[in-house]
Amino acid sequence: MTLNITNSAAQSMCNNLVDLLDNTVGDQPTLVVYSGTVPVEADSPLGANNTLVTLLLDGTEGFQTAVDDTGVARSTVTGLPLVATITATGTATFFRMFDDAGTVILQGTVGTAGADLILDTVALVQDATFQVTSLSINVPEQGA
User: Fold this and answer.
1) Which domain, by its residues, includes 103?
2) Torsion of the alpha carbons at 3, 17, 82 and 111, rounded to the nearest 10
3) Interatomic CA distance for residues 113 and 136, integer angstroms
């Protein structure tokens, strides 16, 4: 079975998701990149994962209103690039985004291609600069 939703429903869902991250002026969502085995879902506790880098969106960044983009509703962060210092050496495997209260809202994979968060390298080195030049959240219009 395959569930399909309309463009407007996907856009509404995407907007509601990003509102959990930054629904009011002054909210400061956080993006944290980890090494290790990717938890089964965002609600799962971390195992033996190490925090490699933490990016605090300082309030000048925020998610745009979702738009229809070929099969998905997409909301993109403004105010890029995001820059931080890597705090530990390791191989980046996934990230989580937290609201300003520290609650996990979403989790995604990290890679150099075919991942939710694309990096130029997943081999992160302590004290090097980490930069995100593009960050979007997508809600598909068709599920499996």
Assistant:
1) 7-137
2) -30
3) 15
